[in-house]
Amino acid sequence: MRLPLIIDTDPGIDDAAALSVALLHPSFDVKMISTVNGNVGIEKTTANALKLKAFFNSDVPVHRGATKPLISKVIDASHVHGESGMDGYDFPSLSINQLASTNSITAMRDILLQTDTPITIVALGPLTNIALLISTFPEVKDFIKEIVLMGGSAGRGNVTPLAEFNIYSDPEAAHIVFNCGLPITMIGLDLARQSLLTHDYLASFEHLSRTSAMLYQLFQHYREKDFAQGLKLYDVFTVLYLLDTESYETHLADVQIELQGTLTRGATVVDFDSPYPNCTIVTSSLNDNYRSIFKNTLK
């Protein structure tokens, strides 16, 4: 049986890799794509989601979500992903008529309340939309299997010494989500930092398939730290994990979000010794299966 997904995303080059796997792999049934302000502004993340929808000739509906965080000031990561958020590939021009709606929160509610099978939410960006969904329509929680999110860290951050970008972008939303009582799997910086994709590995993408060639061109414009050694494609590990959960080391923990600290705002405070865990944290890969799964899906 295919795993039904709702994907909430802020494309973003590594988001494009995750969406490519999710839309291509026969194990997934993507019900909708929800966009959020994050790597770039909401108009650009929405345009990028529509570009990918058109690239794959997909019938998965794209809905525009939150334009800004609940409280925080808007930040972006255009210095990492480029001005458009997906610099590096010449996508065909798109029509905004492809957008299914401008309210992804109600769209997610409608899909969840009509489902016969609980749906997994894959969150690739700031958690603003997910927090609004479960706060405004708490009845949907009965229809959510789990939330698998890219965000946070059990160690150091990447936008401040202790905070990861997606959580830092909207800490209040993250606080709501981590304390909502639903099963949560956190795939933070720790996993991708230990699973660097080398340039030699990625070089084979250039001629593997139409999709891999598109991603290869995007990757040349992805300017995360350690680019000289390889790429840390954080978001793609959400879907790679769902395809092969037994190949990853996980630990239960209580994760709380620092909201007040001047130097620590947005940090994920991880307590592996708590008797009341609220989250499963994926800390590392146990093998190299993710490399073959990623490549074979694109092939």
TrEMBL record:
InterPro entries: Inosine/uridine_hydrolase_dom, IUNH, Ribo_hydro-like
Domain Inosine/uridine-preferring nucleoside hydrolase: 5-284
CDD domains assigned: nuc_hydro_IU_UC_XIUA (cd02651)
Gene3D superfamilies: Ribonucleoside hydrolase-like
Keywords: Glycosidase, Hydrolase
GO molecular function, one term: hydrolase activity
NCBIfam families: PRK10768.1
Name of this chain's protein: Ribonucleoside hydrolase RihC
Organism, scientific name: Staphylococcus borealis
